[in-house]
Design brief:
The chain is mainly α. Helices cover 79% and strands 0% of the residues. Helix 3 (59-88) runs antiparallel to helix 4 and helix 4 runs antiparallel to helix 8.
């Protein structure tokens, strides 16, 4: 799911990756909205809020939204920088490093985020950390899937889905329809799993609060561990030949 790149990567790899990470994004998104009153998986709305506060001359609030935007950008930058760095060193599992960063951030906020707020840490800082982690995730999944999968926001997905649904009326050749069908299936999987993550997170919030993020980090850790162990297995298998 995570280790395959280029020609070895299949539609099923992308589908599994999309389903898992869009579900995680849904959990993080609803947690941010309910606990921090901030969208924590995309920055589109934050540009509008930034402009609004700027116009109203609420410069400190405007700066908060600007910092949230920058946090997502930094997450994306760091994720790809780390991946490229380890790829240059010949590491076949370079993806595990940014994934570990995301897991760690979500786990720490899930465990102690409420205590941090009680001790005076700004909710904007916590929201920024979540946006950073989602920048890490979105960059990672984009890089692994060769820009086929993005999991943290849906606007572009709905645009692409609308385009591809309309193309079904015009593209009749078997290979064209197969490619379109797979792409539609992938986009629907992302949308549905994101929605499921939001709904499940919403129901669990009254019980777990920020602890929902612990659940998200556990799912990611299991996926990462499975991938790492599988790589080790194949390496041992090759060495025995």
């Amino acid at each position: 799911m995570l280790r395959h790149k280029g020609k070895t990567r299949t539609f099923k790899h992308n589908l599994r990756l999309a389903a898992l990470l869009s579900f995680i994004a849904g959990l993080v998104n609803i947690t941010g909205v309910l606990e921090l009153k901030v969208l924590t998986t995309n920055v589109t709305g934050h540009f509008a809020f930034f402009a609004e506060e700027l116009i109203l001359k609420h410069y400190s609030l405007a700066m908060n939204f600007l910092l949230l935007i920058i946090a997502f950008l930094l997450g994306s930058f760091c994720s790809n920088f780390i991946t490229e760095y380890y790829l240059k060193k010949g590491k076949t599992s370079a993806h595990k490093y940014p994934m570990f960063i995301e897991i760690s951030l979500l786990f720490v906020i899930g465990v102690s985020g409420s205590l941090m707020i009680k001790n005076g840490l700004s909710e904007t800082v916590l929201a920024g950390i979540l946006l950073f982690s989602m920048g890490v995730q979105n960059s990672l999944v984009t890089q692994i899937s060769n820009s086929t999968v993005r999991t943290t926001h849906l606007t572009g997905l709905f645009t692409d889905l609308g385009i591809e649904l309309s193309q079904l009326f015009f593209y009749k050749r078997k290979e064209q329809r197969q490619k379109l069908t797979q792409s539609i299936e992938l986009r629907l999987a992302i949308i549905i799993c994101f929605f499921i993550g939001c709904v499940i997170g919403g129901f669990l919030y009254s019980v777990l609060s920020l602890g929902i993020l612990i659940l998200a980090s556990v799912f990611l850790a299991i996926a990462l561990l499975y991938d790492v162990l599988l790589i080790k297995y194949y390496q041992l298998h090759r060495n025995r030949r």
